[in-house]
Amino acid sequence: MKRIFSILLLFISIIFINCKNHTSIDSYIKELATKGNFNGNVLVVLNGEKVYENSFGFSDGSKTVKLNKEFRFDLGSVYKEFPAVSIMQLQEKGLVNLEDKINVYLKDLPSWASTISIKNLLQYTSGLPEVEWDKYFKIDERITNEKIKEDLLNIKELEFKPGTDYLYTNHSPMLLSQIVEKITNQTFKEYVTQNLFTPFSLKDAIIHPQAPYLDKSLMAIPFNDDYEEDSYKVTISGAIFSLTADDLYNWIENLHSYKIINQESIKFLSEEADFFGNIQSPLGSVEWAKNRIIEHSHHGSAGNYECIVRRFNNDKDVLTIIVQTNQKHENVGDISDEIKNILKFN
Question: What pTM does this model have?
Answer without folding.
Answer: 0.92
